[in-house]
Design a protein that fits this description.
Length: 180
């Protein structure tokens, strides 16, 4: 790519014109991946292959962008604004790539597929099961100890999401702190 850019630099008066149009075309192709995800009924390739093209073309477009700006910081306000937007989108893409690779490993640790929209249902199911066990234990033993502990510590735990960041990191520290 660098060799092609050098050849066009000597052949063209303004090589940024060509690199700008190629960069524009690559951004359109990158944007087409979002449309591909929404239009699932057309047989235009698998989403996984589109994702691979999106990743590699995105990384290639960063190199093309750096060639387009001649490896320097833009000096006009419009150029600077466009560069900031491009760098922001590129950084969000790299961050998304890292998180998709890292979090997928963490999410599959549990042994079953976790769908974000189903998490509140799982929490409600666990809360109901815990409350039934507390009532059953209190009725069986005749002691209010378990129900008092549940009311003091566990009811709040089941009421809303807790320790989201620690769950993302795979930490169990909050569970040990709760038992103390």
């Amino acid at each position: 790519m660098l060799i092609i850019h050098d050849v066009y630099r000597t052949a063209l008066f303004q090589e940024q014109f060509l690199s700008g149009w190629i960069l524009f075309a690559s951004v359109l192709i990158l944007t087409a991946y979002n449309a591909r995800k929404k239009i699932t009924m057309l047989p235009i390739g698998s989403s996984a292959s589109w994702l691979q093209v999106h990743i590699y073309l995105g990384l290639l477009s960063v190199l093309l962008f750096l060639l387009h700006i001649s490896w320097r910081i833009p000096n006009g306000w419009l150029e600077s604004l466009l560069a900031i937007f491009f760098v922001g989108v590129a950084l969000s893409g790299v961050t998304g790539l890292y998180l998709s690779r890292r979090l997928s490993k963490l999410l599959t640790r549990s042994g079953e597929e976790l769908i974000f929209e189903r998490i509140p249902g799982f929490v409600a199911e666990l809360r109901d099961e815990a409350e039934k066990l507390v009532v059953k234990c209190a009725a069986t033993t005749g002691s209010p100890t378990i129900s008092e502990y549940h009311a003091a510590h566990l009811a709040h735990f089941f009421s809303e999401p807790k320790n989201s960041f620690r769950h993302l990191l795979g930490s169990n520290r909050h569970l040990f702190e709760m038992v103390k």
